[in-house]
Amino acid sequence: MIEILNLQKSYGKNLILKDISLSLERGRIISILGPNGSGKTTLIKSILGLVVPQIGDIRFDGESILGKWEYRKKIAYLPQIARFPENLKIKELLNLIKDIREQNADDNYLIQFFGLEKEMNKALRNLSGGTRQKVNMLIAFMFDSPVIILDEPTVGLDPVAITRLKELLEREKDKDKLILFTTHIMSLVEEISDEIIFLLEGEIYFKGSVEELNQLNGSGNLEKAITNLMEKRNV
Amino acid sequence: MRRYLFILVVILYSALLKAEVLKVRLNSSLSSLHIAIKKSHAGDTIWVEAGSYKEPPLLIEHPLTIIGIDYPVIENTKREEIFTIESDSVNIIGLQLQNVDVNYVNDFAAIKVNKQEGCKFENNHILNSFFGIMLKNSSTCIIRNNYIKRNPTEEEDEMSTGNAIHLWYCRDMLIEKNETRNHRDGIYLEFVDRSIVRENLVVDNIRYGLHFMFSDHDQYIANTFRSNGAGVAVMFSKYIIMKNNHFEYNWGSSSYGLLLKDITDSEIIRNYFNTNTTGIYMEGSNRIKIFENIFNQNGWALKIYGSSNENQFSRNNFLNNSFELSVFGRSTTNKYDGNYWSLYTGYDLDKNGIGDVPYRPVKLFSRIIGKIPSSSILMRSLLIDIINFAEKVSPVLTPDYLMDHQPSKKPFVYD
Amino acid sequence: MFKIFKYSFFDLIRSTWSLVYLLFFLVITSAILYMSGDLTKAIISMMNVILMLIPLVSTVFGAIYLYNSREFAELLLAQPIKRKSFFLGQYLGLSISLTVSFLIGVGLPFIFWGVIGSKYLSNFLVLMGVGLLLGFIFSLLSYWVALRFENRIKGFGFALFIWLFMSVIYDGIFLLILIWFESYPTENLAIILTLFNPIDLGRVLIMLFLDTSALMGYTGAVFYKFFGALNGILISSMTLFLWIIIPVFFLVRYANKKDF
Asked: Could you give the ipTM of this predicted complex?
């Protein structure tokens, strides 16, 4: 569904992505792991068209996305930080996004799901951080998009919300979607992801399932496996 | 009432002299002023009744009084000069004189006097005339209470209009309470000495409201000069007194409230300069006392050019002028002490009504404009405010002699 | 584009800042009208306020707003929308909301004071037109700042610098150039230099309409002949519009290449 071909991106002299090639298919939950500065966010932002790569190409359903915008109708995005225009109400915000996407939205179900019914007419500046994260998720999940991209989705979420998020992800996966997320929480990776892409200094250091990674390192613990992976590299 | 009393006196007076009274009236045996003048003898009085009279040139060669009743309209058949006076003691009172056309060869006037004494022109309406009242080489005449106005046209210039009141080589004249509008100069005096010009209203003239040259020992009192093309210009004269006049709304790139050029030993006192591009423009003028005048909302209150020396400015009120003073050249002998400047912000610790810090009325920017005129495009910009402020805080460029050492903290009140 | 405009306009117009800006104009305009008691004088005083404040507020407030809406911009840009539409819509939202505050804040007191029926109406309209265009121009410059500098402190400083440059430093250089060429006729040079700075151009236009050109003597007459004639007015308006169109062109070009 998404093909990345020899992607390179640098900011000034700082080479962030070095020649990345990847193929991502439907019906899978893929986690992108790696230490800070390894290029995780840059990679997903390239797919979203927020970052313009210098070399290489990204194809969505076989077509290059560079300079295009229509393909994003098929992508839902959950950004890491949820900051919204302060003076809009939740309702107005949802209407804005619906207006832009011109797609059918399943917002009523999700509003109940997150328990936001009473907050709909509140201005966004008056909401707590947790509520804002819920609104953030609501925006990402209310459209039936074949691809869902999440950047550190668990940051700032309470345990209940994390459980809800997992439920949502499982539900969407069953609809034969491609779900792509970055995170630092290994338990979440272990629990839900089918595939791990481990980035280190702008290169794909490992790509495979959780089991494969564990086998490779001979350890039963993902966290340890990752640590091993990084230490080996350093040796 | 006073007019009738006056007429009565004239009648009694002429009766005493056994002078005759002639009555001119339309559709009567004497229906022409021209014939009446021919019939009259010295000292006679001619009464002209209301009506419209087309007359050939009216030449008066003996003392005569002509009095209009309800403003009879007198016009020259060729629209040329109406009265030409070549005798002493001629009085023309209460007529409406009109339509003297522009002539580039002869300076035709409604009333012209040459080399005579003791004439009096009073209460006349002079409308649409090339020149209004013109006197040459004459003395002891009175020009009073006349209304002199042209119909303004689209394409008029200095050449196609004449002066309303024009005096040349005269002395001991009294010009008062006249109103002149839309002429070239409202009042023009050249070589006119020992004369008084007072309480005239001079408005909307194309060039100068008042224009005099080479005229000494004259007094200008309580006149109003408003919205004249270039304001008032006085030149090459001495011993002049200008008092209680209003100079107003003379606005334009070469317009002045009062332009003084080579005026010496004179007094300018208690005049009101309101909304002129330049209140007083002074060049080559010496020993002038400028006291107790009000300068309100002028572009420049004072512009002083080179070779103006020993002039004194004192007890004047400078209120809300864009620039208070500009000085070009180095005249170090003019004194600016003891005025009120509304832009002055100094303090008065000893409470004696005089600011403790000397005031510098010359703004740096006005000096820059003087040197580089095109910098005026930066007027009212923030940069200029900052420059002026900096110069005020630490004056390095404005010389010390351009200072008011005793600036008043309050505006002066003149009784 | 219109959707984005709608949201950013309604977001901004309801912000405390807009209200403060509006109230400030209401208070200062009423105070100036009350104290001068004379429409011409009030227009001159408002000219100084407008020429200083609108560029300052538009650049600095514009930059603050753009930095604050940075994350949301990212979310919206990840939606199916052209970057051009997004930025133009947001720009219109920003500049129009600022302009609305200005038009109401200054306009209402003047209308209340009877400017509509007076002979100063055209002067007043020039004043408002200049304020309006300056708002559009300088909120556009704030985009340049906010997109160019990731660091807010730097961006904020640069916005202030732009303002300072356009309102003071430029004129300083202007004056130095005129002094440098003192012995030549510099009227035309002065006109050209004025055209290159929207604040100067706005100021000169207002001044000439207010008949202050008389204060400038002969040079004033030259300026008036240029700016007062139809050609001059056309050129001035064109220049002010170019001050919008050219930066918009570069903004769109830059925004298309920019990483978020």
From this structure: 0.86
